[in-house]
Design goal:
mainly beta; 6-stranded antiparallel sheet; two-stranded antiparallel sheet; 2 helices; 45% strand; globular
Length: 155
């Protein structure tokens, strides 16, 4: 089926697609504030760009990290608080994919940052993204494709 990009959040790698179907499953959004170290999680994605619907799993190993995310396209940065780390590898091609708990509930979005010359995979907590998701759902028409969600939210 066809899908059109509806909106993009440049900092979290969250992309919204408009799909002209009503029969697709909608994942439940969890509460990342309830996550604890040692819980199991699954990263969904497209590993290496070669394997569709790939998964990797691991344990939540660290919580409450703060990163400054720089968006070179927008020449701006944003402070991300509450990120958590897994002991599983987050491949570049899995960035932007959902991270699920073992009940299949979305607890975050996989992301990556370069820190001290090394790539560090982390998870943006779903609680941080819920305001963005809720705002995007309320739009009646898609924003201009050159306008990101953050720019639209500030209007």
């Amino acid at each position: 089926f066809d899908a059109e990009i509806f909106a993009v959040d440049e900092f979290s790698n969250l992309v919204f697609y408009k799909v002209e179907r009503n029969d697709l499953p909608i994942p439940e959004l969890g509460n990342s504030s309830e996550i604890e170290i040692g819980e199991k999680a699954v990263i969904c994605g497209n590993a290496g760009g070669e394997y569709q619907n790939s998964f990797s799993s691991g344990l939540i190993k660290e919580m409450d990290h703060t990163f400054s995310l720089l968006n070179s396209e927008l020449s701006s940065s944003e402070r991300l608080e509450g990120a958590f780390l897994l002991d599983a590898i987050i491949e570049k091609r899995n960035v932007g994919g959902p991270v699920l708990d073992y009940n299949g509930t979305v607890i975050g979005i996989a992301n990556e940052i370069e820190k001290d010359g090394k790539e560090v995979g982390f998870v943006v907590p779903i609680d941080n993204l819920k305001p963005i998701i809720n705002r995007a759902i309320k739009w009646k028409t898609p924003p201009n494709k050159s306008t990101t969600i953050r720019n639209r939210l500030s209007n």
